C-alpha cells in the first residue's frame, strides 16, 4: 500500500466549471495551463502541483482518489473546499 502520492489539482467553486475543465483535458489541454487559469488554490500558480504528501494529509475524499484512483487520469472530486480536478502523478 502506497504511503505517499504526488498530485496536481485544480480547485474551483462550481461543478460546471470543473466539468468544463475535464472536457478541456479530454481534448488535450495541458493540466498545468488550466490550473494557472482556473484554480482558486495557491498551488494554481505552480500549475496545480501539490508535491508529495502522505496518506491522511488531505481531506478524506481527496485522499481516497489520490491513493486509489487511476494514475495520470483526471478525477473529479467534491470536498468541503469545492470541486477538485485531481491528477495523480505517482505513488510510493
TrEMBL record:
Entry EC number(s): 5.2.1.8
Keyword vocabulary terms for this entry: Isomerase, Rotamase
Sequence ranges assigned to domain PpiC in this UniProt record: 2-90
InterPro entries: PPIase_dom_sf, PPIase_PpiC, PpiC/parvulin_rotamase
Organism: Colwellia echini
Molecular-function annotations in GO: isomerase activity
Taxonomic classification: Bacteria, Pseudomonadati, Pseudomonadota, Gammaproteobacteria, Alteromonadales
Superkingdom assignment: Bacteria
Pfam families, per database record: Rotamase_3
Name the UniProt record assigns to this protein: peptidylprolyl isomerase
Catalytic reaction list: [protein]-peptidylproline (omega=180) = [protein]-peptidylproline (omega=0)
Top-level EC class as recorded in UniProt: isomerase
Amino acid at each position: 500500500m502506497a504511503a505517499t502520492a504526488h498530485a496536481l489539482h485544480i480547485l474551483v467553486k462550481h461543478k460546471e466549471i470543473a466539468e468544463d475543465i475535464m472536457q478541456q483535458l479530454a481534448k488535450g489541454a495541458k493540466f498545468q495551463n488550466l490550473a494557472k487559469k482556473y484554480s482558486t488554490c495557491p498551488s494554481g500558480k505552480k500549475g496545480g502541483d501539490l508535491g508529495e504528501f502522505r496518506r491522511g494529509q488531505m481531506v478524506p475524499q481527496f485522499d481516497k482518489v489520490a491513493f486509489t484512483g487511476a494514475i495520470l487520469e483526471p478525477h473529479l472530486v467534491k470536498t468541503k473546499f469545492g470541486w477538485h480536478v485531481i491528477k495523480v502523478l505517482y505513488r510510493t
